[in-house]
Amino acid sequence: MVGMGLAALTLWLVALGCTPSIAPFSARAYEQAVDIKVDMMRTIERAEEPFGNHRTRVEALKLRMQKASEFAKGRPRNEISARQWEIMVDPEGFMAGGFLARWELEDSLSWGFIREASIQIEAGFDAIIGLESGKVGSDRR
Amino acid sequence: MAESFAISLFLEIRHQLESTLPELSERLLPAGKALLLDHAEQLENWASQAASGQLSEKDVEWLVRSQIDLSRLNALKAAGLAQVEIDLFRQALTRTIIGMLAGRIAS
Asked: Which domain holds residue B93?
């Protein structure tokens, strides 16, 4: 009887120990974030030029960011990464989405602002990438 | 230099907060001071670029707000990595307990 109780307790502990509270590492999420970061940094460098010259490129980039955000939202126990993407893509915020929205609104931006904003946005992407690569299952841990 | 800029800024914010929201100022000021001191060098850098005309007032406002978004992203990263560490600890603890229980069941 005691043995059965111990066995049941063991099974319960196995179930408890095997349920992580945060999603494991996703190679797809990691690659998406790195690719988008590289493209975003290259796009930012062109913001001294009229927005209209780069509209197609920006729209494609915004779509990819939206897809990455939705992918993060759709993964179970991935609320923290999903929240990070929301901040990054928000057109009314002050990261990648906000930068692109301001560029579109003002048509072109000053080099001084582009340089400082790119440091902020790059660090923002690094926070997203750093969390993904710190999750269980990543070989970067 | 950067710290003195942050302190001047903090004193100005304290003055405004105490005159407009006196009931909240005591609770908000410590957090505001910590945030300013953490980013004193960055704020000083933007202020001097604004003074030399490299950045507009609107640019500086955008960048200060981006610093807040960046702090949120880093706080989320820290929270996520802390959860990972808790999960790993829980798994290790579970393995240890299971090992001990298995030993008891076998004996």
From this structure: 58-107
Decide if B61 contacts B42 (C-beta within 8 A): no
Chain A residue whose CA is closest to B90: A17
Does the beta-carbon distance from B66 to A80 stay under 8 Å? no
The complex's ipTM works out to: 0.89
Tens of pLDDT, residues A13-56: 666 666 788 999 999 999 999 999 999 999 999 999 999 999 99
Minimum CA–CA partner of A133 in chain B: B81
pTM: 0.83
pLDDT, mean of residues B55-68 = 94
Q: How many helices (H) and strands (E) does chain A have?
A: 6, 0
Instruction: Work out the minimum CA distance from A60 to partner chain B, whole angstroms.
Output: 23
Q: Are residues B64 and B21 in the same domain?
A: no
| B83/A9 CB distance under 8 A | no
- The answer to whether position A112 is within a domain reads yes
B104/A54 Cα distance (integer angstroms): 69
